[in-house]
Amino acid sequence: MEELSFFEKVYNVAKLIPHGRVTNYGAIAKYLGAAKSARMVGYAMNASHNKDVPAHRVVNKQGLLTGKHHFDGTNLMQQLLENEGVVVVNNQIQDLDTIYWDPSIELH
DNA sequence: TCAATGACCTGCC
DNA sequence: GGGCAGGCCATTG
Fold first, then answer.
1. Which of A41, A50, A71, A108 is most buried per CB count within 10 Å?
2. pLDDT, tens digit, for every residue of A19-33?
3. What's A52's DSSP letter?
4. What total of structural domains would you count in chain A?
5. Which domain holds residue A76?
6. Smallest CA–C1' separation from A38, nucleotide
């Protein structure tokens, strides 16, 4: 795992996000041991379009779909989340505490 | 090649 | 308790 670059690690963790669950950039960064690198996680998501990474399951800590603008459609990200049972209103995830998934806790 | 930017978060004043 | 600036790695101009 440590042989992989930061981006590779981000991709691996993002792939482990359960169906219908969401997490934030800081949680992934913290799990990777770089809590201050949350920015890089977001940037990695930008480069994860070619990868098999569910970038739509990764949002900011406020539960806002800040990266939705980077998807093809206008509300594609929201559609994908709603398709998994995640309630999204006005680009903001509802019941975030319920569907929140923390890799540092779940994956230990 | 150097400098700036980017789907953010944490810590300090 | 709120606001501001720093930090991180990779990519683009």
1. A41
2. 999 999 999 999 998
3. T
4. 1
5. 6-100
6. B8
The domain that holds A70 is classified in CATH as: 1.10.10.10
H/E element holding A64?
none
Q: Is residue A83 part of a domain?
A: yes
User: Nearest Cα to A40, choosing from A1, A2, A11?
Assistant: A11
Nucleotides of B strand lying within 7 Å of any protein CB atom: 6-10
Residue A108: inside a domain: no
pLDDT digits (tens, 9 = 90+) for A50-65: 899 999 999 999 999 9
pTM beyond 0.90: the answer is: yes
Query: Is A1 a member of any domain?
Result: no
Residue A40 structure tokens: 């890089």
